[in-house]
Amino acid sequence: MSLVDIETISRAELEQDPFGHVVIPRSFVTDAVAEKLRGEFSDDGFEESERTDLNRSDKQYRMFNRSLVTAGAVDEDQVRTLPANWQQLVADVVSRPYREALSALTGVDLEGCLVEARMTRYARGCWIEPHTDRPDKAVTHLFYFNDGWDPQWSGDLRLLRSADMADCAKRVAPTTGTSVVLVRSDRSWHGVPPVADTCPVDRRALLVHFVRP
């Protein structure tokens, strides 16, 4: 049985300001399921990922990642060590009903796209600068797993009107059950400012990308 609320996703309404996106406040079939996934979010198996070289053409960032699905293939070695609910969640995001729901929501043909999925942790000082995703990333879906989020901790998702983090149209707190769908375009600017040193917890999420081969 799917843990992701497929019907809610397919019936959500896409917004176009500042670019194609939707914030879904209740992404799982029940709040109890969302809470269970939050409580079972493992901190094991993550690797630090950082790019801060000024002489680069891609975005800068610092975060911790645990890859679960790469180029459409589930990493069985990683996934089998997860709790049963998380194994089901991985099965959900590579399923056809989920793909069709995101297609219905976004109007983007995802047939033939390859799924990539990874768990992420933003510790204190982690961030990702304003960017638009690569042209091959057609649609991104971010699921969040934090028990509340104080605005003073920073580290929220910023949907932007430009490459300036201050040019913010919407802020999304990474709270449990909330998810965000982003449709890639040349104006789909978004970023995450550094998590504050006063933040007592890591910012936790699952990122799902549909990538054109």
TL;DR of this structure?
Helix content is 19%, strand content 32%. With 213 residues, the chain is α+β, with helices and mostly antiparallel strands. The two termini are 29 Å apart.
Description:
Strand 8 and strand 9 form a beta hairpin. Strands 1, 2, 3, 4, 5, 6, 7, 8, 9, 10, 11 and 12 form a 12-stranded antiparallel beta sheet that branches. The chain is an alpha+beta fold and 213 residues long. The mean pLDDT is 96. The radius of gyration is 16 Å and the shape is globular. It is 19% helix and 32% strand. It is built from 5 helices and 12 strands. One of its GO terms (molecular function) is oxidoreductase activity. Keywords: Dioxygenase, Iron, Metal-binding, Oxidoreductase, Vitamin C. InterPro entries: Oxoglu/Fe-dep_dioxygenase_dom, Pro_4_hyd_alph, Pro_4_hyd_alph_FE2OG_OXY, uS12_prolyl_hydroxylase. Its cofactor is L-ascorbate. Pfam families: 2OG-FeII_Oxy_3.
Mean pLDDT reading: 96
Give me the number of helical elements: 5
Q: Helicity, in percent?
A: 10-25%
What is the number of strand segments?
A: 12
**C-alpha-based Rg, rounded:** 16 Å
* Class inferred from helices and paired strands: alpha+beta
Question: How large is the share of residues in beta strands?
Answer: 25-35%
SSE succession: HEHEEEHHHEEEEEEEE
Q: How far from one another are the termini?
A: 29 Å
Low-confidence spans: pLDDT under 50, at least 5 residues?
A: none
Largest sheet: 12 strands, antiparallel
Q: What is the global morphology?
A: globular
Keywords: Dioxygenase, Iron, Metal-binding, Oxidoreductase, Vitamin C
Enzyme class: oxidoreductase
Domain Fe2OG dioxygenase: 109-213
GO molecular function: oxidoreductase activity
